[in-house]
Design goal:
2 copies of one chain form a homodimer.
Chain A: H1 8-15, H2 19-26, H3 37-50, H4 56-63, E1 68-73, H5 79-94, E2 98-103, H6 108-120, E3 125-128, H7 136-143, E4 148-151, E5 162-165, H8 167-180, E6 186-189, H9 196-211, E7 221-222, H10 228-238, E8 247-250, H11 253-265, E9 275-279, E10 293-296, H12 299-315, E11 324-327, E12 330-332
Parallel strand pairs in A: 1-2, 1-3, 3-4, 4-5, 5-11, 6-7, 6-8, 8-9, 9-10
Antiparallel strand pairs in A: 10-12
Helix pairs in contact in A: 1-2, 5-12, 8-9, 10-11
Chain B binds a DNA duplex (16 and 16 nucleotides) through α2 and α4.
DNA sequence: ATGAAAGCGCTAACAG
DNA sequence: CTGTTAGCGCTTTCAT
């Protein structure tokens, strides 16, 4: 059975040269090692005929470099993460790297497990949007000098490079917009607690209030996940409050979908009965029954920069000063915010 | 520097046993090889202390099995594919396999390149939603006895297993629905030509007409990609036709978004001015300004079945009879179809 | 009950 | 200009 894949050895045997020479010729090192034109050509020719292509397992084992990066995200079906994934994969491919993908489903256990799996597969580096509640495994990786870049979520007091949106500023502007439109009872439906995007957005929400001397009603800050169900459930409950909030600041696109569902079930209209602004712009946002005013993130750029940052670390062995990068967000004005007539602002900055 | 990762050798050295023994103990073969309880325990203990975990590169090289599968899709940011990706990854993980992901961007070149990359990395099998215009590379893989499963797109006269929706039937029902509502000038905005989902949907569109003795106006079958731009451009053009089509059958969710954009730009309303039905149900479909009537696919199941099919092939070496699996679609009735008053049907079945 | 040795396919140090 | 040798970390014959 010569039916198995061609190897350096099989080529060498066939041509009566050594494996080394074949390896050198095929790696474009003919000049450096002064391989005769003749030998080189016959090797290249044979390789082509046999459709030789190198076994990356063997190569990786020998070189301790696999041109593979591990990528862990909490939910690939969330369009925000999907579009980041697209740009990560594309950038990585451009530089000759492949992606091993894991969806952690917002579970720290799966995240840890996947991380270990990737290490065993000797990825050259990791891009990860951590679930965000535990960090020990990430620190451990970093201490092993395996390059790692956090994406979307970071840890303020941890020395790991990250790329994320300026969630604080984005939330601040979003809530400011509501306040400027006369809203003072603004609900905030938050995502997974103790993740940086959530923390920063909630902080922005609060500071927007404080800046305008508005008191913060903690009972209006609700929810605990980035998913649609959370948006639905919390909105159902919010709409039973008395007095009703006049506006909702929703911390993710999926939460908003759930909120919209609840609002429409209750027979209410956006923005007539309740105003809304949502994080994450999506292609469909403008076509919703009420076109949604959103805080748009630069997802493509986030993916590109994270990949760049990682590959820099991988290819220049020296570990850079870990840097954190915040990308600006942009408010996209549509029709989901109504001016609130019951203006009761104590003061308008 | 004993700082590097622990290996079988380092454990063996430390304990004064052989690598073989360590390997056996850690692979749960202590009984089979009658390793003494004492030795076994001290090996397990040491492995735990050192946080040993096996180098999968080395293992894969030796075993010719990597527990990795390659997954190639044309657009991970398309929510249809994203949700399939989620289920593929999840199923694979459940059975101990990791995913190498590539986005071919609907380019046959990238697809081929990625395929080769994956083969070099010795994946145990491949799941691929081929761009669909060329098959030679897929056939070649299959002939090397590397398990492969096509997902979403298949080739009717090619002997490769596949999983897809019953696109023909789905389209037939969709267009029937339009016809039953009195529409006879129905535009079809199609996706990438010569891909099976597109072909089958267009075939369904045509047969629905033929079944009701309606003539097919080829000039109403337009478009050439599954993306949003295509939907936008083709709808812009369609709306300049005279007489206007009274309904649109859109072959993908992204096409529909583009179509909606064009329709709203032209100051028209769905369904008052033009009716619409779209392939692919999405979480947001019901919240569009006109809740969209859609043909829903079982994306999660498609992913699960494809993975199952592949793993079956991988784990029982024998190559099964390649089978094609069609999953039923379901029409989800909403508000985007209006009864057409100008009933001019020659006959109603 | 355990080990020595070979080899998966590749590259690099060293030797001519 | 080319080859020999060693070794990456693992599993598996074959010995004992």
């Amino acid at each position: 059975m010569k039916n198995s894949n061609p190897t350096l050895k099989s080529i060498a045997l066939k041509l009566g040269v050594s494996v080394t020479t074949v390896s050198r010729a095929l790696n474009g090192k003919s000049n450096r090692y002064r391989i005769s034109k003749e030998t080189e050509l016959k090797i290249l020719k044979a390789a082509k005929e046999l459709a030789y292509s190198p076994n990356q397992l063997a190569r990786g084992l020998r070189l301790k470099r696999t041109n593979t990066i591990g990528y862990i995200i909490p939910d690939i079906s969330n369009p925000f993460f999907a579009s980041i994934a697209k740009s990560v994969e594309k950038s990585a491919r451009k530089f000759g790297y492949s992606i091993i993908l894991c969806d952690s489903e917002e579970s720290t256990d799966i995240e840890k497990e996947s991380l270990q799996l990737m290490l065993n597969r000797k990825v050259d580096g990791l891009i990860i949007s951590p679930v965000g509640l535990e960090v020990s495994h990430l620190v451990a990786v970093s201490q092993k000098n395996i390059p790692i870049v956090l994406l979307d979520r970071y840890f303020p007091n941890l020395n790991l490079p990250f790329v994320t949106s300026d969630n604080y500023q984005g939330a601040l502007e979003a809530v400011n917009l509501l306040i400027e439109n006369g809203h003072t009872r603004i609900a905030c439906i938050q995502g997974l607690k103790n993740t940086s995007p959530n923390n920063d957005r909630v902080r922005g929400y609060k500071d927007a209030h404080l800046n305008k001397q508005l008191t913060i009603d903690e009972s209006l800050i609700v929810g605990d996940s980035f998913g649609e169900d959370n948006g639905y459930i919390e909105t159902k409950l919010l709409l039973r409050k008395n007095p009703l909030p006049t506006a909702i600041f929703s911390v993710s696109n999926l939460i908003s979908l759930g909120a919209i569902r609840a609002i429409s079930e209750e027979g209410l209209k956006i923005p007539e009965d309740i105003s809304m602004i949502s994080f994450d712009d999506q292609p469909y946002s403008r076509f919703l029954s009420t076109p949604m005013t959103t805080v748009s993130q630069q997802s493509t750029q986030i993916g590109q920069i994270a990949t760049k940052l990682l590959l820099d670390q991988i290819e220049s062995k020296r570990s850079h000063d870990p840097q954190g990068i915040f990308l600006p967000t942009k408010i996209i004005l549509r029709d989901s915010i109504k001016r609130n007539i019951n203006l009761k602002l104590k003061s308008i900055g």
